[in-house]
Amino acid sequence: MFRGRRQGRGPGLAMMLLAMQVFQVGLDRIPPVTLATLIGNVVIYLKLFKIHWPSLGEVCVSTLHVWYRHDWRRLLFAAFFHGDEWHLYYNMVSLLWKGISLERRLGSPYFLYLVAVFSVLVNIVLVGLNMAAEHLLHDSSYISSCAVGFSGVLFALKVITTHYLPPGVQYVMGMFPVPSRLACWAELVLTQLLVPNASFTGHLAGILVGLAYVKGPLKTVMDVIIPREPSYTYRSGATGTRGNQSTGGPTYTYAQGTTGGTAPPQANNSQARFTGGLSEDEQLQEAIRQSRLTGQSPNPSAPPQPQSARPNIHRTLTDEELRRQRVERLDRR
């Protein structure tokens, strides 16, 4: 988010670089909501249609205009207007990569819902932060400070994107390695040092909204209104399984080549039909017993009988049965 900048008109070098980025990625690889949001921001900046486009002074969000003058529409519009083409370029490139990651994970309807809520909520938090800063620091400039741009929303999306990544190291602005969980805070400080005209409270508002989503109650409240669709994840060559953290909504994971898991019930039932419900050791012992009884190796194609169907070869013979066996042996002689 930028403060008090006037935007030039007409596509320049930044717009050409943005177009190159988009076509390098490929239009077919950019999810629809991400692509539509990017195009919408460009259309608004270039004022492509002959309609009444408000100026930056009419849409920028500030405590003075929103809280004291009740110009609530600024909460809706401020995120989609930019100070200059480089402001737009950096925001849209950031949206391109964050959108591809999050929209594929969350689904297009929910991602659209997320962007819409964050676009308004970040500006509401911005107004509150500026009001608090004015009271604490006794600096009236926070009341009149007016900001535009999509970067507050992008900071919120960055918190969510980082939350879904495994712990590691990220290079902020491609140069400074920091732990991934601290990347948004490092970017907040570096952005303010490199671009003093950036809205610090606007970016901070984005981080706070993102944290409220991944750590606080915001996600629960949003999911009550519009629940997440189930996400389906394919993982190949994994060892064991690991829970999918904080993705919201049910997640169905197909893990190929896993160890430490149990076979599906269908596989167990099918296997039981061919093994008689016996383990490998029990099958071996049964084969040995059958070999001793018949004097020859069992038919390998015939499955062993279940325990309940096996003859009781260890039971004690009665006197009558012993007498009959002796008579039969004498007759054979």
What does this structure look like?
The structure is a single chain. The longest helix is centred in the middle third of the chain and has 30 residues, at 108-137. The radius of gyration is 34 Å and the shape is elongated. The protein has helices spanning 13-25, 32-46, 56-59, 63-68, 74-77, 85-106, 108-137, 141-144, 151-164, 183-194, 200-214, 218-225, 265-275, 280-294, 319-332, and strands spanning 2-3, 147-148, 169-172, 176-179, 231-236, 251-256. The protein has 333 residues and is mainly alpha-helical.
Secondary structure blueprint with pairings:
Layout lengths: L1 E2 L9 H13 L6 H15 L9 H4 L3 H6 L5 H4 L7 H22 L1 H30 L3 H4 L2 E2 L2 H14 L4 E4 L3 E4 L3 H12 L5 H15 L3 H8 L5 E6 L14 E6 L8 H11 L4 H15 L24 H14 L1
Parallel strand pairs: 5-6
Antiparallel strand pairs: 1-2, 3-4
Helix pairs in contact: 1-6, 2-6, 6-7, 6-9, 7-11, 9-11, 10-11
Average pLDDT works out at 78
Terminal residue distance: 108 Å
Q: How many strand segments?
A: 6
Spans of at least 5 consecutive residues with low confidence: 4-8, 232-275, 294-302, 306-314
**DSSP summary: helix tally:** 15
Q: What is the global morphology?
A: elongated
Largest sheet: 2 strands, antiparallel
Radius of gyration: 34 Å
Strand content: 5-15%
Class inferred from helices and paired strands: mainly alpha
Series of secondary-structure elements, N-terminal to C-terminal: EHHHHHHHHEHEEHHHEEHHH
Strand order of the largest sheet: 1-2
Helix content: 55-70%
